[in-house]
TrEMBL record:
This is Transport permease protein. It is a multi-pass membrane protein. The chain crosses the membrane at residues 21-41, 53-77, 98-126, 132-154, 166-184, 222-240. Its main location: membrane. Belongs to the ABC-2 integral membrane protein family. One of its GO terms (cellular component) is ATP-binding cassette (ABC) transporter complex. It is found in: Cell membrane; Membrane. It holds the Pfam family ABC2_membrane. It comes from the Bacteria. Residues 21-247 form the ABC transmembrane type-2 domain. GO terms for molecular function: ABC-type transporter activity. Keywords: Cell membrane, Membrane, Transmembrane, Transmembrane helix, Transport.
Amino acid sequence: MKNKTGVLLGRLMRNIMRSPDTIITVAITPIMMMLLFVYVFGGAIKTGTDSYLNYLVPGILIMAIASGVAYTSVRLFNDVKSGLMARFISMPIKHSSILWAHVLASFVSNALTIVIVILVALLMGFRSSATIIDWFSIAGLLGLFTLALTWLAVIPGLTAKSMEGATGYSYPLIFLPFISSAFVPTDTMPKVVRVFAENQPVTSIVNSIRAFLYGGNISHDLWIALTWCVGIMVIAYFFATKEFQRKVG
């Protein structure tokens, strides 16, 4: 069997580029949240920083990724329901190519969304002292987070009975940044909420990105963030491939 990941990826990317509103739609929600929090709520929120926009950007990037991975579920669900998945499985190609094409399409499309969000943030006044190495580190962490959530998205894409079921899992992911250090410092939260916020993956990832952007201490939060991302990805990959093998028969 031949590895046709590149060909299948090309098919998905052509579909995305023929309908760029997908990327724009994904970018609109985090951009609108950024505008709302900076220009409406920003003056009332105390973060101990000179610029609330600079404080907010890492959380907005996480929200953009959480919004974008939902489309992986949609594309997989459509392939399954239309019979296209069964057709691919019957062809002399590596079955793993089918899933990896969807995962890589999510990776690329989310990268484009991140670029759009950062450009808008720059227009709003976002500034960073990060070096090129810091930016590569941020890109690597965001890329790992994207892969983790994308493999998680594969599961409902393969198992859902309806479009709503395929996308419903993404809503908790989108709102998870609100109960983290993404928008306000966790020490301003009630004790029970603070305990949850400080021990969920978004907080460590956001804190790591802030450290890279503004020269903070990255060691502790970064290792926790990497552990969360790798752990989620390994577990999601296991269950996603197991479900796919069940469909392959």
